[in-house]
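Why D-glycerate dehydrogenase? Reviewers of the renewal asked for a concrete example.
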Amino acid sequence: MKAFLTRETYDTPLLAEKLSVAGIDLEVRTDSSVCPREVLEQQVSRVDALLTHTEDEIDADLLSRAAPQLRVVANMGIGFSNIDVAAARARGVIVTNTPTEEAFEATAEATVAILLSVARRIPALHVERRALTCDPDPSFLRATATSVRGKTLGIVGMGRIGSRVARIMHGGFGNRIQYFDLVAKPELEEALGARRVDLPTLMRSSDLIAVNMPLSQQTRNLISAEMIDLMQDHATFVNTARGELVDEPALVARLNAGKLHGAGLDVYGPAVDDIQFDNIALTSHFANFEDQAYTAMTTLVADNVVSALTTGQALTPVKE
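Here is what the prediction returned.
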């Protein structure tokens, strides 16, 4: 059996070893860039398993070129919006992702870290100091940080990541928690005093906003220009979910107008290159970039491929 990895992952030797034990030969593309389309087309026509990253577009046209023996597309990541799951299912191809507890914990920790750093103006202060040869003069007239303690945190998407963010911020900083989700979370409402609100209410009344909603047809551009206009000028906005959830040009315009305290974006598109505002943090989709999380995800990718190819069942199949 043959498998192809679109580019090296955190522990490629571990991945290759686990597959080899099951009689699966792994070919690895060693270039660190996103896999070119022509390479995907070549490989999908010859392998039993395609091991992908969330930046690889696995659409219906590509799947139509798949070899008859292709049985699994194993995505390295919690998300799977890069894969046409329906087209894969129609061809009898299993799609898997890596929803490990370690990945959820890592992303929640990163969300909190970015939120705190932007609220405290750490990115802006760092850039300012690096541009100088000595410390700036102290002044009470300079732009200041905003406090986090006792504030209202609005969480867009109270799932496995958002709920962890809520627990950290409520327990550690005494935040009042409100959330928008398609499904009510009564256990969190009871445990944290969280309240479920509609999205306009959340955007209008939150001091801190964290976007942790999965991307789907329902949620694409959920944080629209209209929603962005509702935010308070002192609000801090963080997105560690998917860039397509947010009307990015509208967010950039709001930032450049000086009408937000700041923003932290782990996911984004090209519009961020137009940001002139100083209090931002861009972390290049590294929210779950952590040794424990990546080891667990690498292991799960291997286990999914082995299980799919040997039993016809995966451990974490995508059920969209």
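The first helix runs from residue 12 to 21. This is the kind of structural detail the renewal will allow us to pursue systematically.
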